[in-house]
Amino acid sequence: MMKRKLILTGAALSLAVAMTGCGGKPVINQQPSSQEKNAVDTQAQTETTAPAAASDTTPAQTVTGTVDEETAQKIALEHAGVKATDATITKSRLDYEGRRQVYEIEWYAGGKKYDYEIAVDTGEVLSSGYDEKTAGWSGSNSVTVSEADAKQTALGRVSGATQKDIYEWQFDYDDGRPEYEGKIIYGGTEYDFTIDASSGAVVEWEAESVR
User: Fold this and answer.
1) CB under 8 Å to 210, separation ≥6 — which residues?
2) Is the pTM of this model over 0.85?
3) What are residue 142's DSSP bridge partners?
4) What span, in angstroms and rounded, lies between the C-alpha atoms of 37 and 66?
5) How far apart are CA 150 and CA 203, in angstroms?
6) What confidence tier does 55 reach under pLDDT thresholds 50, 70, 90?
7) Which of 133, 100, 135, 95 is nearest to 114 (CA)?
8) Which of 103, 108, 142, 176 is paired with 123 by a 20 to 30 Å CA distance?
9) Rounded to the nearest 5°, which phi and psi values hold at 134?
10) What integer is the mean pLDDT of 40-52?
11) Under 8 Å CB-to-CB from 145, ≥6 apart: which residues?
């Protein structure tokens, strides 16, 4: 009987040892599996290489004008009342007025030299003018045109303008020739002019937007 009891006790002890070796006891500090490790590494790499938010530093695009050079010339000539067949264009180029693109156009017609600036984006006449070169001056040094008549001649060129819109006015001589010089500001445009005091002809006229 004693012998059988010892055998059973030994068997129980062997079984306990076997269970301990087979994982019956929880494992501490278990290392992650290779699949779990790869998943963590992939997530970390994705976060590291994620693109930063796009910065708002894209340079502004250049505005393309809607009026070409040929159209600008046509606008200028029509504004001046000059036929293309009567004009000799001496300058026609693209330039800038401040940050705005313009066409600078010059031509001769009827003894006058014309200067124009046309906006590329709208076709607006930004400035215009002419100088008498071979005609207009009477050549006389006598004053035959009154100041009142000369003012009416100038105002007649600016529809809607009145005496109160004349901001400058003076009588002077240029190389012995009597003339009236004045300035009209009306409707967002400034007009500078010279009128021959002997013939009453407008020998210089310039208009420029002041808006």
Assistant:
1) 185, 188, 189, 190
2) no
3) none
4) 62
5) 12
6) very low
7) 133
8) 108
9) -125, -5
10) 50
11) 180, 195, 196, 197, 198, 199, 200
